[in-house]
Amino acid sequence: GMGDLIVTCASKHSRNRRAGVLIGKGYTLDEAIKEVNMVVEGAVSAKAAYALTQKYNVDAPIIEAVNKVLFEGMEPLDAMKNLMKRRLTNEYIDLDWKDE
User: Fold this and answer.
1) In the 8-state DSSP scheme, what is residue 99?
2) Which of 19, 57, 64, 79: disulfide with 32, CB 3.0–4.6 Å?
3) Confidence check: pLDDT of 5 > 90
4) Residue 28 belongs to what domain range?
5) Is residue 76 part of a domain?
6) Nearest to residue 30, comparing CAs of 56, 69, 80?
7) Whole-model pTM?
8) How many structural domains comprise the chain?
9) Tell me, what's the pLDDT at 100?
């Protein structure tokens, strides 16, 4: 739940956070996993999330960027710059927020 998300993002003891910090410092995913020396579930989840975007043809730029960093060797800073350069879009254009 929400507590797990907060701990994953904020705790220095979180395996996923530690791996992310290492990747941000230039480690590859394999190097980060080796350094953390435990399962990094976030990498598995990222791969699954990317597969779903491809299967259902969903534009998910953050998921795509994470996939490129983790599995295609893109530098994290380059991924962030690419995301920040994207044209703004209305992500809610097809959603109906009315109660049914």
Assistant:
1) -
2) 19
3) no
4) 2-85
5) yes
6) 69
7) 0.82
8) 1
9) 53
Q: Is the dihedral of CA 75, 47, 22, 83 positive or negative?
A: positive
The candidate with the shortest Cα–Cα distance to 69, out of 9, 22, 10, is: 22
| 39-67 pLDDT, tens digit each | 999 999 999 999 999 999 999 999 999 99
- Of 67, 33, 32, the closest CA to residue 49 belongs to 67
For 30-94, give the DSSP string. Answer: HHHHHHHTS--HHHHHHHHHHHHHHHTT---HHHHHHHHHHHS---HHHHHHHHHHSPP--TTTT
Kindly state whether residue 38 falls inside one of the protein's structural domains: yes
Q: Are 35 and 27 in contact (CB under 8 A)?
A: yes
Please report, as a single letter, which amino acid is at residue 90: N
Residue with the two structure tokens 């259902």:
56
Give the pLDDT score at 95.
62
What are the C-alpha distances in Å from 7 to residues 10, 18, 72? 5, 12, 27
* CATH number of 66's domain: 1.10.1040.10
